[in-house]
Amino acid sequence: MQYCPQGFSESAAGRAGHRLLRAYLPTGVDGRARLRLLRRAVVRLAGRPRVRTRVVHDAGWAALWKIHARPFRVGRVLIQPSGGTVHADRHGDGRAVGRAGPHVVVRLDPGMAFGSGEHASTQLCLSAIDRCVPRRSVLIDLGTGSGILAIAAARFGARRVLAIDNDPLAVAVARANVRRNGVARRVTVRRGEGLAGVRLRANLIVANLTADILPGVLDDVARCLVPGGGFVASGFGSPRVAEVRRRIRAAGLRVVVTRRVRGWCAVHAVSRP
Predict the structure, then answer these.
(1) Cα 16 to Cα 67: distance, rounded to the nearest angstrom
(2) Of 139, 204, 150, 153, whose CA–CA distance to 173 is shortest?
(3) Tell me, what's the pLDDT at 52?
(4) CATH for 116-271?
């Protein structure tokens, strides 16, 4: 997950006890550099693994999901896949009214970036943003992927959102989605590692990251929150909850609650007054 943030597939290999991991990397300098790091990491973990690569020419397969894409809701957020069935936006500003009450509309083309809205960790973060983002607030979205959380925060009334990702492909996808949703004046997408160099003070920081990546950002969370500001960490399963809660407390935050959806978890914490 560190070197292939878009995700990977895992299946049984030909030999008993062996697993096949398949992931896609971008071509070019960034992809080659990431592949070198990935090879070294796998060698450290698995001794003498077999690593094979080939160049795949895009024949439109990355967009095939659009044929069957349909809108779906996560709480008060209506995800409108780009190219799918169009849902009426009565107000023209991302707000709409349906049978389940008022909601915000996020038009999304995730491409190969994480964050279609269907994963449980993304849904946990969307629910937290729905509950915890006051109007005119400031939010930081760590590991923005497709930009879905940053866009939802802007739709719910955040006056400024900083969306950060270390993957150049995700940054490009998120910027396109921000423009698609008409929130470019309030949402800034940039490439970066965690909160390094961030001088913004936020009312809420959302980190949809793995439990292994999270410790690298926790040291800066309290610095980047206003007094009493909120922090939501997601992207890990129940077996890692105790560890994540311990690390968050060690970073000077007070853990408030842990929420779970389909085996995935989100820990909510606040900074000291």
Answers:
(1) 37
(2) 150
(3) 87
(4) 3.40.50.150
